[in-house]
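With this grant's support, we have settled on a layout for protein records. A representative record follows, to show the layout.
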Amino acid sequence: MLVRIPTPLRSYTAGEKVVDAQGATVDAVLGDLDRQFPGLRFRVVDEQGRLRTHMKVFVAQESVRDLDTPLDGLEEITLMQALSGG
């Protein structure tokens, strides 16, 4: 399935905006992404295995917080990272 990568995390994907990953759940897709692009999962998921507060995951344009959300392999996943500044 296609995974859209936010600009701040593209250094992990060699600049790629969209990558392919496999998995039956959001967590499994993040694991596959980390296998392909080491370190990426840690930027999305904290040490307790929870989605970081500044990260959002959209599955087929629906926001999800549960990493155990099942996938059928046809969805498009979008990772979004909140940015702050001032």
Notes: Strands lie at 2-4, 18-20, 55-59, 62-64, 77-81. The chain has a mean pLDDT of 94. DSSP finds two helices and five strands in the chain.
